[in-house]
Protein 1
Amino acid sequence: MKHPYLATRKSSRNFYFRRAVPESLRAVLPREIWISLQTPSRELALACLPDAARAFEQKLTTARQQLDDRPPDLYQPLAHCGPPVKLTPELIERVAERYFVHALASEAEQRLGITDDELTERETLVATAREQTRRARARADATYLAELAELALDIVTAEHLYVRPDSELFEQLVAALHKKDIAVLDEELARLRG
């Protein structure tokens, strides 16, 4: 009989505990959590499932605590419908923080289940990206600034905000996103290095 939480991966001979994460916790966790049971034996894997289930529940508990420690409105869209909300200096930090949180959640999801070699490769790529980002900032690289401005416009649209792209507020948003972009890369690198 098939166990609902027992799974395999093409990239591994071992069995895994696999379970979906509740929607309410996906701001800080990926859609699914995979925990290696460190064995290719189905019998041993089944014996390991209770420990993996406890580890899964601990991850959910930690995620709930993280969400409780953050401002509750951080994960809520700024405007659902109706006319766009005008971007203000007070909203800029909130928008940038939401970008940071979602970027790291996406990074955590991509990191799940990768091999040691893939982890090393990812660490090299992130370290290179961080250095290139810092250099682009120091040079005020036009291409990088244009990419940030495009990101800012995407976020403004997604958050249903209004700001003129030629305004000082928009420049402040781009600068805030740039700081968070570097912070995301710093945090990714720290996570990859354990």
Protein 2
Amino acid sequence: MSKRIIRDKIKNNDLVYYSYNFLKLFYFKYILTDKALIKKRFRKRLGREVNLIHPIKFNDKLQWLKLNWRDPLATKCADKFEVREYVEKMIGSDYLNELYGVYESIDEINIDKLPKSFVLKGTHGSGFNIICKDKNKMDWKLEFKKMKRWLKTNYYWRNREWVYRDIKPRIICERYMEEKESGELRDYKIFCFNGEPKIIEVDFDRFDNHKRNFYDLKWHLIDLEIQYPSDGNVNIKQPKTLEKMIELSKILSKNFPHVRVDFYNLDDQIIFGELTFFHESGMGKFYPPEFELEMGNYINLPN
């Protein structure tokens, strides 16, 4: 029986699911230290040992930051709801997506009172998203079950990204967005280092054949892949708002040694997405591998 089938069986049985996750959490929390789990996961994902003594590569430095860097502001900014206050303070509320609701329990969510399309997000992790184009075509029994599990999950324990550890589990509902030209919503992820933008990532075909292209600040395509393939044949036009996005990313990132600042470009309107401190949890595969060293050189580790 494959691991996927076993996982599916576990997910479809609440008693087994919670028992399994309790045992897994007990093992992760009380047996594996942060450093031990990071070394174990890193070795499995990247096929090499992580260098935590004298890190020079991008992924190694992100693991070092997991273990040695702490800043309460980063926790606030990793929270999908609390970060809105930071964005409003730093660049203004005009760049925030419309918010329909904030919920601490799934019992507070009334689908009937929401518009036809919207997005539900867990505030306390990564990948906790429900994209609803038409609420009348959704299996809400299944989706509510999913959100209930989100609220019982502390995302920190997966890869020891400490920014998530103390975030209050909540669900937010935001306006659904889609670009007219592409028929999807591409986000522009700007990698910043001590307030200096260096590289821009654009993800596309996320739900069919996930790809991502990388560009420099002048919108020249970079020969780089991190975790997902690139496609130079896909013509992603330079957004008219590029210079403004770069300017805003400088402001939002200036308080951190490294953060990825994500924006959407909706009909030439800039909408803030999120701040991400550990891209691919610091375990994304680089091609060519030399670029991992180059991006590592951009990070100046704090004392």
Protein 3
Amino acid sequence: DVANPAAPRKVGFYDTPGDALAITLAGHYAYVADAGGGLRIIDVANTAAPTAVGFYDTPGWAQAVALAGHYAYVADGNAGLRIIDIANPAAPTAVGFYDTPGNAWSVALAGHYAYVADGGSGLRIIDIANPAAPTAVGFYDTPGYATSVALAGAYAYVADGGGGLRIIDIANPAAPTAVGFCDTPGDAVGVALAGHYAYVADGWWGLRIIDIANPAAPTEVGFYVTPGWAHSVVLSGAYAYVADGGGGLRIIDIANPAAPSEVGFYDTPGDARGVALAGAYAYVADGDGGLVILRLLRDKFTVTLLSEGGTVASTARDAYLVFPSGSFTSTISLTYRQLWLDENTSPLTGIGRTFELSAVYRDTGQVAPLAPGHTFTATLHYTDAERGGAIESTLALYGWDGSAWVREPSSVLDAGTNTITAAPNHLGLFAVLGNTLRLTLPVVVKRN
């Protein structure tokens, strides 16, 4: 759990046989570039107990993987680009390859082209229209050591160790040309894009944020020096998730690109090299620590409650929970977790007030339910901005029964104060949900 997101805990892991260097997700599978272990396919449907499904032992050193259709494209070090059919995840098979002249570190896909960051041989562009016979189309020899590439429009953005961020025009794949560059202070090894900014994982120099609104003159606008070695970065909303080597996973608030700040971290057991996000989870390729799965939360804390009861407030003071005397038969440890994302809410919509309550007895460690016949009071506040597209008059507290959201019968809305109160008789997973605005069109029947 990545709490507030500042007090995370591990949810699950799978110890791959090699060094997990990068990860890509599709459906309920994680595709791990596992260095000497090749491509590993892991079922993560049960995040607490991921299981191996299949693998393909590539001939090189699997550095990164990208997916398109039922193919995995593996940047395989000195063995170049390897194309693997993953239609049957239990039995992946080699389809084709292109032996690039350098060391293939990463790969990005667009149309029927693969763009390979090829170490000392720069950016290599390969036509993959026929996966069984990929062919070289063009290249641009960057001045440094190309380790990562991201695409946006007609440009490729290359993290070029020793050469900073390089921007290359790929409108004509047969003749890519340099457009601009920004020389970062460290070893640029990873890059991600959002809006008109590039976020560069810069080795010892952490996260560098570069304005690329004018590709011919990119400029650094902000940075955050992480404690480890920043290998890669992915983005979600106002946060950058940095795989920081020995520094684990670092979560950086980038709402203000000129002043990024760390909001949380998890010190993974290995060497965090890559990260991918899906739903409320972060999946970390953790070197010799294998695959590590973290649950992303907005808030998490544990408090002690005596049998006399008490009041609990969320960190943001937008949720208050009142437990009257006798709610529990003895002293408990109550844990509050607020999820980062609302899950499985269709056809309703959430407003960011999904939270989980659990309790254990302090003396035995056994699960502590509410005492029979007792309820607690939940008072939840929201803003108009958080409500978003939900119809305010329909907002209510719901509880998850294991397969569906069920409206709490005691839920009461006070739209004047943006408050919902309810008196549940159980702990568990809760969410504030409502209907969304829908357009209903009249049905016109034409009679002859």
Protein 4
Amino acid sequence: VGGEALPAGLARRARERFGEGLEVYNEYGPTEATVGCMLHRFGEGGAGREWVPVGRPAANTQIYVLDRHLQPVPAGVSGEIYIGGDCLAEGYLNRPGLTADRFLPDPFSRREGARLYRTGDVARHLACGAVECLGRRDEQVKVRGHLVELGELRAAVNRHPQVRDSVVVLREDKQGRRLVCYYVARQEVEEAELREYVARSVIAETAPSAYVRLGRMPLTVNGKVNTEALPEPPERRAAAVEVTAGADSGTRPVEELVCGVAAEVLGVERLSGADNFFDAGGHSLLATRLVMRLREALGVEVPLRGVFERPRLGALAELVSEGLKAGHGAQAPPLGRAERGGGGLPVSFAQRRLWFLDQLEGGGSAAYNIPIALRLLGPLDLDALERTLTEVVRRHETLRTTFKLVDGEPRQLVSYPSPVRLAFTDLSKLERVKRERQAQSLVAEEAREPFDLAQGPLLRARLLRLSANEHVALFTMHHIVCDGWSMGVLVKEVSALYEALRQGE
């Protein structure tokens, strides 16, 4: 059996039907490595597992399970499968960039020109020595701060006795990034029942936000799930049962307003007091936005933890009503600009944590670097790009902030704006394959370069020239001054300012 993961149950059913004399072999290998690289005989190790392992390497083939630094991982720890040996293809025809990205120099071989193929498959070594595939690297997504294996979520859904098959995908729509589960049921199963069932076996923050029942799963011509054909999840509607029927008249208008604000934040048509904010697609960032909108609309300070403690909107409305009656709205101090004195500014709790970890490790760690690489096509105005970055740094104080001890406490010190100069590397004279490899190496090198929180700057910018009309821009920031959301802001501002400066606007 090859081409797809082999369920152990299917292998067992085959043995039961055709007798114990039947031998079932699971084969693994991508086209780039002559298809057959590993083989596993069903029944030899891997007992009690849901999927049949893919086994051990074939002759003249080397199989490695490596981390992102190309270091072997211990048995039981997941990593990516890399393949070496005589089985490898030369590369992709007329696609040198893709070839350089997937076929890498083999650090474990003494043979000149030896290479490894990066498969994109996540796996681990079992105690018996066989390799077990866990899914695709592109099926690992980060949601609400957690790294999620979509295959594991699918398996959790499929364990429900009434679910025939399912698939979990990450969608981006007006409700933001959210996990949506599509399932085909043997018999009628309510969404609430399925949601509760899945919640028993996964972390709450990683559970799908929406469940969509399908009559049948859309498939491609070779039998795989066609994710492009999956329908948009229906918009969330108000719950059929209104829990406000018994509420006092003073609470009803507040609840209506809370439900209206929550619907606006989540980008859905209607919500009722019976709806759960997080089940409707909410997460921590949207909860923060909800608290801010309630403050603007009602002038009441709702603690963020209140949304997590009372996620049902009717209960949250009661908390808001209590705040209004207690006059908490009047206690909210107006936001004002803090003085930028020589003693610096206080650090946030998150910044204090990151500063402490940096001190604990003695500096020199790149664990909290946030790198981004952008491939730029077309003529590039280097002067305009440098002026763009200078303006972005002027606009955002956090990009010219350092962190030092003042009277025994870490403080933020904001520097005056100054021109930003791009570190520039010209690779255009190299042959194309070598150029792509060198660019990949410099991208990795830049991402691993640590920051000095006390000296700064905590934003680095570098430009790689591949040709007259092709460049790679590298931006790296420390997590103490930015997050994933901030990187989106940075890219949008750079794009808008660069275009404006080029046009003389």
